[in-house]
UniProtKB/TrEMBL annotation:
Chain positions covered by the region annotation Disordered: 154-177
Name of the protein in its database record: DNA modification methylase
Bias (Low complexity): 163-177
Biological classification of the source: Bacteria, Bacillati, Actinomycetota, Actinomycetes, Micrococcales
Keywords: Signal
Secretion signal span: 1-25
Keyword Signal in annotation: yes
Amino acid sequence: MKARLIASIVVAGAVALGMSGCNLIAPQATLKQYDASDGVGVTVGSVAVRNAIVVSDDGETGNLVFSVANRDDRAHTVLIEIEGKEEQFQVLAEPGLTTFDGSGANDPLRIESLGVQPGAVLDVFFQYGDETGATASVPVLTGQLLEYSTLVPTPLPTDEPTEMPTPLATPTTEPTE
């Protein structure tokens, strides 16, 4: 009887170990942090840039679209530099979540001399205050997907002169030749 009890315990232990053994040595996917969307993210101090993408149909002009999660209780001015370009931007990251996509008060950031075709990546540097900045390899996407179709940069208005209408002839009582 004692042997049966010991055998039952050993079998139960072996079954339990066999059923859970792969969880002891296999990596847990839920512990890995990753960007779950098309965009990428970086964290600088208490400011987290999330889902950063550049939307461009022609590779010449693009809109930098992203969200900023500021975990601090005060606003920070975030400096954004496009690597290899002379364009710089500054945005105000209020406490909480601020989105720069043109849907509210914050317009997307227009990059005039993009020079990167859709499908490639663009290195973008984010930094604020005395914090050490971080570079993100931001993907350049087209507006073909419905969710990005409204984020494609629109042409800027031109300063072309408008045509002036020709003045109408005024009637006279004198005959013309």
